[in-house]
Design brief:
The chain is mainly alpha-helical. The chain is built from 19 helices and 6 strands. The strands form 3 sheets. Strands 1-2 form a two-stranded antiparallel ribbon. Helix 7 packs across helix 8.
């Protein structure tokens, strides 16, 4: 993507009194209402047909309305703003309703639910790493995580790190946000991928920029190194403050945006920001997020993700572009998971019918059905994917092997590897 053209300066437009009558006209007001409902950026407005009205004047009218409703936040020496649109409120309501109802049917027992949580955490870890340059297939990466295999390269190490970070934040939802906690998350996501001197350490230079890897065009210049500590502490204070209510999903997205804007580390800032977003939603009681691989959606729409950030930065740090994008990402991720769950439950229903005479439990049926696409399992992968003891995993594999449903095909380090035997009944 290219950095969009900066919007015209509203103060300069308003300084000419001849423009006031145009900006207050009913015709211009129609464009203002329509474009603000869509929350267009100047780079989009200037391309729209506004008849004989100068797009600069339309933009000035849009900004007057937006500024009137804006709430301003200041972290360090940087000002950020947002305001809640009707469209945002509608999505927040739907999110709350989904969270209250839960995404898992009553027929799914808690142990089966754990399987889907672990699967989604793996998906999130993989997609977040792929966004930052990890080169591997999702299928191969999932198999590595399930088997708890040692990462063989930087890409695999990034994925393992992200997965460990997701498990870490699940165990620390009672903790308040602090610069030290942010450093701890960074240490985990950069283990073995960043020089030790930079892990969990705020950058001590202003050389870090966000730029296009091909053209070299700079998208974002982070705040000066001397402002990082203060900005992060004030951000932590804002997140920890429960005195004035702000919906946790909006607050979490703001956390994501500001961490990315501050860019406190040499590398790994995006992964830290996305991990902390998850942490805050879990901390706020939205356990629905455990099932959502949000980075999967973002990876598939990465251009729009980057655009929403740059739109905000070029428009006086108006975070609404980023908030709208992420709300859509959350709602689309819920929809994706519900479709995935429906398909998996139907597959398992058919598998239960097919294997009913074996007397297998739900977990054992899942083990067999997971191999129909050519996959493999080990005792360790069964343990990790289903959150059971090593002895339970061994017993499952032993039983399925004795029944002729699994066959041993080799070894991975010291662990026997099994695939589906191809047995038809």
């Amino acid at each position: 993507m290219h950095v969009p053209r900066n919007p015209p300066k509203v103060d300069e437009i308003l300084s000419d009194e001849r423009n006031h009558k145009v900006i207050l006209s009913d015709k211009l007001g129609e464009y203002v209402k329509d474009f603000n409902n869509k929350y267009l950026h100047w780079s989009e407005v200037r391309m729209r047909d506004t008849d004989a009205i100068d797009p600069d004047h339309v933009w000035a009218g849009m900004k007057i309305v937006r500024t009137y409703n804006m709430k301003v936040l200041v972290f360090g020496n940087t000002q950020y703003s947002y305001h809640l649109l009707d469209r945002m409120m509608s999505m927040l309501h739907k999110f709350d309703m989904k969270s209250m109802a839960g995404v898992l049917p009553d027929t799914v027992d808690p142990h089966e639910g754990i399987y889907y949580v672990i699967s989604s955490l793996m998906e999130e870890s993989i997609a977040s790493s792929q966004m930052e340059g990890a080169v591997t297939t999702t299928k191969k990466a999932k198999e590595m995580l399930r088997k708890n295999a040692h990462p063989k390269n930087r890409s695999e190490q990034m994925i393992v790190n992200n997965y460990r970070a997701m498990l870490f934040i699940k165990d620390h939802t009672k903790q308040f946000l602090s610069p030290d906690f942010i450093r701890d998350v960074h240490k985990i996501v950069t283990d073995g991928t960043l020089d030790e001197e930079y892990r969990g350490v705020f950058r001590n230079n202003d050389d870090v920029v966000v730029q296009d890897s091909f053209s070299g065009e700079i998208f974002h210049q982070p705040i000066p190194k001397g402002e990082i500590e203060l900005a992060l502490q004030q951000l932590c204070d804002f997140i920890n403050n429960e005195g004035e209510f702000l919906h946790p999903l909006i607050k979490g997205i703001i956390l994501h945006y500001v961490i990315a804007y501050i860019h406190p580390f040499e590398d790994g800032n995006g992964r830290v920001a996305r991990t902390l977003f998850y942490w805050y939603e879990l901390k706020s009681g939205y356990w629905l997020m455990e099932y959502l691989a949000l980075s999967g959606y973002i990876k598939d729409h990465k251009g729009k993700y980057e655009e929403s950030f740059v739109f905000g930065e070029t428009d006086d740090n108006d975070m609404n572009y980023f908030i709208l994008y992420n709300l859509k990402a959350v709602m689309e991720s819920i929809d994706r998971f519900e479709k995935y769950l429906k398909r998996k439950l139907e597959e398992e229903r058919l598998m239960k019918s097919r294997l009913s005479h074996y007397g297998l439990n739900e977990r054992q049926i899942r083990i067999v059905s997971s191999l129909f696409d050519g996959g493999t399992v080990t005792v360790r992968s069964v343990q990790n994917q289903n959150d059971v003891s090593l002895n339970t995993a061994r017993a499952d594999i032993k039983l399925l092997n004795e029944m002729g449903l699994l066959e041993e095909i080799g070894k991975d380090v010291n662990m026997k590897v099994y695939s589906w035997s191809g047995k038809k009944n």
